[in-house]
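Ticket #4471: structure export looks truncated?
Reporter: QA, pipeline team
Priority: medium

Steps to reproduce: submit the single chain below to the structure queue and open the exported record.
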Amino acid sequence: MHHYMVWAPDYTEEGTLARRMAIRPKHLLGAKKLIAQGSMKVAGGLLTPESQDAEPQDRKFVGSALIYEAESLEDVRRRVEADLYWKEGVWDKEKLVILPMVIATALQ
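Actual output as written to the record:
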């Protein structure tokens, strides 16, 4: 098995943040399922620097960072493309990056 880092920036057009927040509960259920299966190791939303200390409802997300364990890059791509954020147009499909990763420290 190999590890892969996914950088999934959000689209920047108006309405993307609202779309993200509306489907976030279902997206998180899917992520929890992948974590329970062992394929997703860690994931989180990326914020604008000025909103990191904001109340949860005032945070401005700009994308997601994820680490997967999988047989191949293509396997990770299939998982990403099955994600609700991909399907519902939150993640920018043209800017998404998946790269092999060597884990240098333990995942907590």
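Status: closed, not a bug. The export was complete when the record was re-opened. Leaving a note from the reviewer for reference: The CA atoms of residues 54 and 60 lie 9 Å apart.
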